Amino acid sequence: MSEITAEADRLTGMAIVRRGLSLSPAIKDGLGLTLVLAMLSTIGGSVVPILIQVTVDSGLGDGGETRLSDVAWYLAGAALLIVVTGLIAYWMRVRLFVASETGLAQMRVDAFRHVHDLSMLTQNAERRGVLVSRVTSDIDQISQFLQFTGIMLVVSVGQIIVATAIMAYYSWQLTVVVLVTFLPLFISLKWFADRLSRAYDIVRRTVGEMLAVIAEPVVGASVVRAYAIERRTQERVDAGIKGNLDANVKAQRLVAVTFASAGLAGGLANAGVIAFGVILGVRGDLSIGTVIAFAFLVGLLVGPVQMATQVLTDAQNAIASWRRVIELLDTPADVVDPGNTGVSLPGGTLGAHFDTVTFAYPDGPDVLKGIEVTIEPEQRVAIVGETGSGKTTFAKLLTRLMDPTTGSVRLGTPSGEWQDISTVSFEELRKHILMVPQEGFLFDATLRANLLYGKQDATDAELSDVINDLGLADWYATLPRGLDSEVGQRGESLSAGERQLVALVRSALANPDFIVLDEATSAVDPQTELRATRALDRLLEGRTSVTIAHRLSTAENADRVLVFDAGQLVEDGTHAQLVTAGGVYERLHASWIAQASLASHTAVEPA
Length: 607
Ligand SMILES: Nc1ncnc2c1ncn2[C@@H]1O[C@H](COP(=O)(O)OP(=O)(O)OP(=O)(O)O)[C@@H](O)[C@H]1O
Prior knowledge:
Residues 33-317 form the ABC transmembrane type-1 domain. By secondary structure, the chain is α/β, with parallel strands linked by helices. It has two domains: 7-330, Up-down Bundle (ABC transporter transmembrane region fold), CATH 1.20.1560.10; 368-441 and 512-601, P-loop containing nucleotide triphosphate hydrolases (Rossmann fold), CATH 3.40.50. It has 19 helices and ten strands. It has helices at 13-23, 31-60, 68-117, 125-135, 137-170, 172-219, 221-226, 230-282, 288-330, 391-398, 426-432, 447-451, 460-469, 473-478, 496-510, 526-540, 552-557, 575-578, 584-604; strands at 351-360, 366-375, 380-385, 406-412, 418-420, 433-436, 514-518, 544-548, 560-565, 568-573. The strands form two sheets. It has a six-stranded mixed beta sheet, sandwiched between helices. It has a four-stranded antiparallel beta sheet with strand order 2-1-4-5, covered by helices on one side. Helix 2 (31-60) runs antiparallel to helix 3 (68-117) and helix 15 (496-510) runs parallel beside helix 16 (526-540). The radius of gyration is 36 Å and the shape is elongated. Residues 121, 124, 361, 364, 367, 385, 387-393 line the site of adenosine-5'-triphosphate.
């Protein structure tokens, strides 16, 4: 049984980057050349101040002699250099973009597939949102880092090194002046980055909270209106928006401080350069061109320092995101698909055998204990039991949505072989056994597209045959646009009963030999109820079925009733045998009868 692993928690930042790159090898494709281009464009940009110096000095001329033709050449050279540097920067960005997007697209595909391989346990409701955000926003964060911040880091570091080297070549005294001015900022960068990172964490958290308080009343609009809680809802929304605004303002204040500090340091450095430059110039140690070039070189330091805190924060976020995606990819799939190595199931209608099956949810007690039972082919079995007795767990094990903790579940025929379902490929298994939920999930598409989830390549003729066989032709004829009707998000344009019918048609299209059904509990109108009962009867004909029964009639009409109590199979027989056996079933049956008579009594009572 696996939870999202914490293995990646132990990796250092660099190890995460290495692991991340090995999972998306396309990112590294041609990275060497891209880095060389990045360095070339940096050097190109840094050479401009040198050209300014030689242009100014030869323009003003040594000893009063002006060489205008040289100035023209230098200017032409500078223009050419700027154009070439621009082209190199463009080429570098395109290469970087293509490589990182290709690599990350692969990572998205891998992560998405892996989410599907995880068992229903790992993907339980509250984790689903987290899993989706790993595939989407976490990978976006890495992409942002690789395409912008990461290269900015390389370019910025390169720019600082090259600019400092050129400064040192011109004048070590002025270089010391500049570096001393920037030193306090360099030292405090990490402190700023940590504070900014924390501030952004709060921004992200408040974005989540804000979206939740906005989305909830939209989804539950009818409840908000029914109970007239618009004001309270609006107050919660306002508070959510305000929280996000405050967090953003706080984070942006920090950004503004770093920007202003770098600008201030640049201004001070330039003032120092001019002051000391004049002194050195007067002594004849420095030319005017060199002092002007220094001012430009100081400008080359300001940009990287202004961006440094942002770069460090983005780097931290990207590493955290990479860590989360790696954790997801490292989580072992606990229900493993044997794929091509899987065995086939025998032909003919299948039965099932539970061989001393025990099951416990992660860190929980055994919820199924030593279940030993054989279900014959074509048998109609009803499962009954109190809530929490283990009925759904039994059904999930039977369809391999989860694997038993101990023991095995097999499918086969009494005369043929029995195969452990963990050795059968998912594809083969789904051809034979299918779990029909109370209501199928509906996608925002046409009714036809939704039905075809049962069999993607079914023709229209096949589809209408199945609908006719289930006796549902009159139902879809009542829909305004027949099979082309749009069902809306999650099927909201259909009634609960119609959504049940969709689940039945899908399963009939899939045509398995064995159906495991969670009987619908939601009340529907009598006409749809009748249709659903008739369709279900036809669907189960000639098939083996196990139904989690919530209705009296289902248990009464079944060939066999299995009664669960606190994770144990306590009774096994027909309705007639069990209803007077003095056990759990007799008690349950009595309470069903009582409920049914209460319901009919209330129905005829005047209001
Ligand atoms: N995802 C889960 N994680 C942990 N425990 C679970 C999980 N799902 C079910 N259980 C526990 O396992 C036990 C059996 O649950 P199960 O859903 O199989 O019962 P059930 O008979 O189908 O109940 P119901 O009729 O209410 O659906 C219960 O105690 C339940 O709390």
